[in-house]
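[Target chain]
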Amino acid sequence: MAFDLADHLYFETWTDPQSGVDSFLLEERVAPLQKGLYYATPSIGGNGQWLWFYGGFPPSRQWMLAAVSLDPARPDIRLFPAAAASGNPLLIPEGDAAYVPVHDGICLQPIHGKITEVLRMPKEILQNRHLFQLVTDLTRSADGKHFVLDSRIGSRWLISLAEIATGTVTPLRWFSRCHHHAMFSPIDPDLILVGQGPWHDPVTGDKGEMDIRMWLMDTAMKRYEPVLPDLWFNHNCMSCHEWWAPDGMVCWCDYNEGVYECDLSQRTKQLVWSHPLCHAHCDPTKRYYCGDENPYHRTPERPCRVLFFDRQTGQEIAIASNMALPPLSPDAWRSYHLDPHPHFSADGEYVVYTTTVRGNVDVAVTPVRGILSKLRSP
């Protein structure tokens, strides 16, 4: 369901001066900083009524979960202080509640009602070691039974299974280098995509580098292998920021080349969108893509842009053609992770992203039908 946000009391229409695409910026505030969720999990699910987002209160670096009704006839906005997210949440299929990582546990925060605990990392696994993070992107197995956790504990990383019904956490494998952004396949309940990443030793400050970014493993621990073994980060590729397409293909951004997808049955890659990008996402049909360009090194001469791409026609258009630096110091900007992170709603009706076009940090919603009307106009 796509609502007409032009009539919504809580949203303000912003039109990109170059493309003419309309976005709707959440004007009603429950926090000084408001940003969309990470691109790996949708900010809008179910029937499209609720937009979930983060609220931030500088100088605190903690993000709290919030939600706003997109129905103009029923405007409602809520901040959930108890849902202080320590990782990226996951909406339930109906879209009116979210599983949210809170320190060492997973909780369920409904729109209406109190937050409840679902599971907690056992002390027997932690063994008095410091838990830096329980999970990066919370995803659920295709059969709905498990979460996969990619926890940083002490000096190592642990990939584990968490049974939702019982709260039982089962370790799969410990790693001595950074393994994060673990995500369940949308079609295979046993298959997991894991990203290697750079890290800093918490004692010495020394930096550890990744070599191959994308890995596959399964819940039986019979597989641990690169998605493509010939992709060496910062050597022959800049592959990063991966996600699962709904059909089970692995997609990712190459910072220099654009969006790729890989058919795991053939282990072949295809360049889908030839445009240097940082983060990207596809709609449920894989016809439409959105992405952000140059969020890390933006300047007035090289602005950050949010783009939309029609794979079938090869047409591209800017959703936001020039986003200034956020009104924060560079260190704070990186700490708050204020990249646009554009992504589609679960039904593909909207693109959600974080914007700075008004001189603040805001969450924006762009109806896809509005983008297509500009894209296809002569």
Q: What stands out?
A: The domain at 5-375 is CATH 2.130.10.10 (Methylamine Dehydrogenase; Chain H). The first strand starts at residue 11 and ends at 15. The mean pLDDT is 94. Residues 5 and 11 are 7 Å apart (CA to CA).
